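Structure ticket #2291
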Amino acid sequence: MTAGTNLNRGRSERNSRAKRRILRFMLLAAVCLLGFCTLRWVLFDRAAIAEQQGIIIAGWKSAVRQSAVTPDKFTPVEEDARPTGKIVYLTFDDGPTEWTGKFLDVLEQHGVKATFFMQGSQLKRENLQRFVKRAVQEGHYVGGHSMSHQYKKLYEEGEFVSEMKENLALIHDITGENPHLVRPPYGSAPGLNNKQIRDQIAKEGIKIWDWTIDSNDWKLKDHPEQIVENIKKATKVDLEVVLMHEKPQTLQVLPEIIEFFQKKGYRFGVYNDSGHFHLNFQKDHRL
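Resolution: structure written out below.
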């Protein structure tokens, strides 16, 4: 075998070994690339599954939270929109009386609208019905205050809804209006602690207002100045609803009460059925 032949054979073997090394490298690279792609696909798939599970879990948790606060019998209503700014509602209970016309005179003189809660036994007195009509004609609101004003009948014997419906029907007969707002005699607490009664009220679409300020005017016949002091001391927030009654001592200091709120920067509001917001001691948002 010649030297040239050996040289060619060596070159051939070297070339063959080089090709085998290149082939092994390419095969290894292909295996690595395949492994890398497989790993990425697995990780991506797991992330997608985790994300989907997270969404499902989050949705489940949200549903649980909603079911925890949603009453099973009643559809929750959206939170009502309370008026903004400083506003006071002057309210008068137990009318109509022989004083109603004079209250309307004072309110007219000061350009103030008010909310009256009138009871059925008084509304039946024909000589007082003209004041009820006048109140509505002059832009005041007339709501119900029961027929009997008797705690036992209303709350213990369960006549609240029937009395209020009769009361509101009387107001409609006199004024042509269809009010839905009533004030529970003695307030909704503890009288309306019974949820069954509140369920009946909500079913009938009757709304309830208590108050934020109790003037205690009914027991201050000889001390009308104390009515004003009670109101001043209790005025603390931007939205106030003042409980008063159609009493001569209240009529006497009504101009001073109006002046006080004017100086404090309050505007005077009057209730409107279409703009109802809840204000009851039971904190029942249906009412």
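Closing remark: Confidence is low (pLDDT under 50) at residues 1-8, 41-78.
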